[in-house]
Amino acid sequence: MALVIGVVSQKGGVGKSTCARLIAREYAHAGWDVKIADLDVSQGTSFDWHVRRLQQQMQPSVAVERFGTVEQALKARAHYDLLVMDGAPHSTTATLKIVEPSTLAVLPTGLSLEDLKPQVLLAHELVKKGSTSGNWCSRCAAWETATRSTNPPGTTSRRRATACCPDRSPRSWPI
Ligand SMILES: Nc1ncnc2c1ncn2[C@@H]1O[C@H](COP(=O)(O)OP(=O)(O)OP(=O)(O)O)[C@@H](O)[C@H]1O
Ligand SMILES: [Mg+2]
């Protein structure tokens, strides 16, 4: 069953697809079998990137597929080591659905107050709605979510504690 990393924001153009591709490429380079679920079907940014890479025979191989719903995308978990969800902007419902199964939620943002504020509010909303619980990673500032589906109640997820930082995991984390 794949580890899931969700890349989300309510604002458009903040770097979701860029981060999703960067993460996917680095994990693939480290030997993971990776798929990006491109959930922004109207733009298909990551899918177009995939086509260009195929045409140029670029390595490492990263699978990319467009999905209309998060539920459909999650079915791909069975076949990969890592599923990176590239979310669409302005989609509250889908954002919540992406973060729920994610071990790591990445919320890219610009540095201006106008850019930061909506992302911080989104992070608070995700916690408030109970779609996720976790901690800000003290090293990389990513939000490490609890993986409730794989951990018995009351236990701490080993994966949760190691999702974003390389030297805390028995496996070779690429980022
Ligand atoms: N760290 C960065 N520095 C400079 N430019 C960046 C950075 N991250 C992304 N960009 C640029 O910003 C633009 C938008 O990036 P991207 O498509 O990844 O955003 P997005 O959040 O996926 O957008 P959308 O909401 O439309 O899906 C692109 O031109 C990309 O090259
Ligand atoms: Mg995008």
Write the layout of secondary structure elements.
Layout: E1 3-7, H1 16-29, E2 34-38, H2 45-55, E3 63-66, H3 70-74, E4 82-86, H4 92-99, E5 104-106, H5 113-128, E6 134-136, E7 143-145, H6 158-162
Parallel strand pairs: 1-4, 1-5, 2-3, 2-4
Antiparallel strand pairs: 5-7, 6-7
The structure holds adenosine-5'-triphosphate (ATP) and magnesium ion.
Q: Which consecutive residue ranges, at least 5 long each, have pLDDT under 50?
A: 147-162, 168-173
Q: What is the number of helices?
A: 6
Order of helices and strands: EHEHEHEHEHEEH
- List the bound ligands: adenosine-5'-triphosphate, magnesium ion
Please report the first level of CATH classification, the CATH class. Alpha Beta
- How far apart are the termini? 20 Å
What proportion of the residues is helical, as a percent range?
25-40%
Kindly state the number of beta strands.
7
Estimate the global geometry from the Cα principal axes: globular
Identify the CATH homologous superfamily. Answer: P-loop containing nucleotide triphosphate hydrolases
What is the percentage of strand-forming residues? Answer: 15-25%
Instruction: Characterize the main sheet.
Output: 7 strands, mixed
**Corresponding CATH architecture:** 3-Layer(aba) Sandwich
Query: What average pLDDT do the residues reach?
Result: 82
Question: Strands of the largest sheet, in order across it?
Answer: 3-2-4-1-5-7-6
How many distinct folded domains?
Answer: 1
